[in-house]
């Protein structure tokens, strides 16, 4: 019965607009003018449902509503095209992907340790490029901060400061302008314009008042000295010994002062030229006004331009360039740079800066453009300049064209519109600026990826080949894909087959090769890909769609559930929603569509042909409507059963009913963080901040944003400011949470307990109070107050905070009550929908065989959890199976280079006497975290042993 609809969809005869050689082809087009047949059909469904709601009794006399909706959805599927295995493709990664990630990390760390201080910023940028492909965005952001910390020149500081701000997306915060200072000198627009190397001061609070400037700063005004100087009478003429004549005006000057401005002026006024003997010099042909020359005379005495109109300063800048007046040029440059605060001013002064070779002024304008990304690139004048080779050359002449600049611009452009001409041209400029091998690899590989997306396969192959020639072996995947798209399937297969043969096999190699073979060979390659790297989504999707094509929908859903159990992505959620619609499980399908729209609000369903929100509206007609109160009850149920996807869907529904509810946006961000969707979580948190109706609430959300981006002290300050306005649960909770992460000592723990107790006295809902009780219990455990902890965990469980079972189990274990601990974790396993962590934790409270069973289940449910690999490796080492132990850790490292796993493998290598491998793993671990104390200690010990073994 469950497959009837699927069969119906495969045999439906649609109207002529849907006919073609492949009705279900993935890329079937839709008529542009009035929308495709499927689009029109779905729109008609909405209007029909509206009519049915008004005349339901008449409609039911003809046909049941459910039957009609089923047929409508089936026809919509046929119109848009069902997913087909021969149309699925794995995504080619856009980042640098070394063939041996561990060796690459180790090499970067060694070069970092050995390079000069002034080169560290460049090394950290390389590290950024390597970390860009890792799932944890904090690693990339931390490297970016380190690059800024060690930056020396103004250009690098401007670009890196803007990039740090871009990563935090402050432009999305209402009331925050591009040039606002966040309080840290590292991101301060004023500090970025100060040259010099001082990494210690970069973390200091910024005292900048840049955002407090008034419009009168740019107005013309004269100080007392200026006024008296320009209105002197004949009584002071004896101070002057020469004049410059410009038209009818005569500007009296002191010869010595003017000569001191530059060597050319000195030669003109004191050299062997005729002018050096003249008292009056005709200066009319030097393109400076009388007013400008008067200002030059004043500058020769005061060495300041602060009292001049900006137009006059621009004249002085031109004069300084013409006569090589370096001091005057520097002062004019700095003054004009200080006037740049917004896009209008930057656009006005940018060309003057380029013409006048004013390094700081161009830097200031550049800073505004970069801090306004991506919107600034929508200005045709800005985009045309940065995209053109001429613009790049003009920037290079003044010292502001760099790989760093175009790397940032191109990443912003790719996020904004991957296939645009702007993206292509910026990547081309990035390639032109590339000087080191890794820079060329990255630029050429990303150009290949963009061209592939644009379906310009010949150009894509050319750029991928350039990347391979530069040393990026992974780009062979792009070459193979380009050949395949151009009809050379066998050549693509041969290329990937040679890659598998020549290098240590990786999951992505088998995944790519599977595209170019059929039958059992394809199935085996996909199985091997999953075995080597279970995080690759393509094999799961292919197997699921293959099962669906064979009408095994239950198996298809089970297959896609395997990856959704530990890695949430919109494409996998969409696929499951597809299958659920076929099974007429519209409630489940609606859940998945709502969840994926939380991850990506602009997601287009049905192969990019239908807005996700539109499908939500359609599916909503097929499920029981629920009120906001019903939603709250559902949220409690989903939350207590640790169903994060279900919780996301409920919150999405609640926000549709009440879109301005900041508390719901905040709850959404917490769920997204639990699902490792950091970018979406930060977006929800920024929306929560923007929608906050009170100042104290807004401060809390700003505090969480600061904490999540590494500014812990500032987060605490926001919490304290919020508390000073109004005592609230969230403000106390934020302060307690950040303090517990920052200061783990016993004194701080007691203070955290007080803060959490204050939080619990404030009004809040049970979901948040359950979390606070659990956190409070955890701190009680840290200070050895186990009975208090039991009380807190029990209270948390009473309000359905199911995760408290894990904390309670820990307390029982500390009390040496292992049976009770085991039972608590069993309860959590029974209640939780996603329970890999519960199996992992329960393994600590049972014997070795049961522990191995639980950890095996944890790995099956979530292969990204590294503790099971470490445990199994440790057991193997205890059994003197060193090779198997190393292999167990290597398996995890191959798809997740985790710090703890690398450290453990280094220790194993050390114990086996393999000092070279131990050093390599230590260096890779230290590249991930250079301050990891245990690894540093091991590294020093192994290095010392290696030195002792060297022949004397």
UniProtKB/TrEMBL annotation:
Give the record's keywords alphabetically: TPR repeat
- Report the SUPFAM superfamilies cross-referenced here: POZ domain (SSF54695), TPR-like (SSF48452)
InterPro entries cross-referenced by the UniProt entry: ETO1-like (IPR044631), SKP1/BTB/POZ_sf (IPR011333), TPR-like_helical_dom_sf (IPR011990), TPR_rpt (IPR019734)
Q: In which pathway does it act?
A: Protein modification; protein ubiquitination
SMART domains per the UniProt record, alphabetical: TPR (SM00028)
Query: Which domain of life does the UniProt lineage start with?
Result: Eukaryota
Q: Which GO terms describe its biological process?
A: negative regulation of ethylene-activated signaling pathway
Note the Pfam families from the entry. TPR_8
Could you tell me what this protein is called?
Answer: Ethylene-overproduction protein 1
Provenance organism? Nicotiana attenuata (Coyote tobacco)
**Name of encoding gene:** ETO1_0
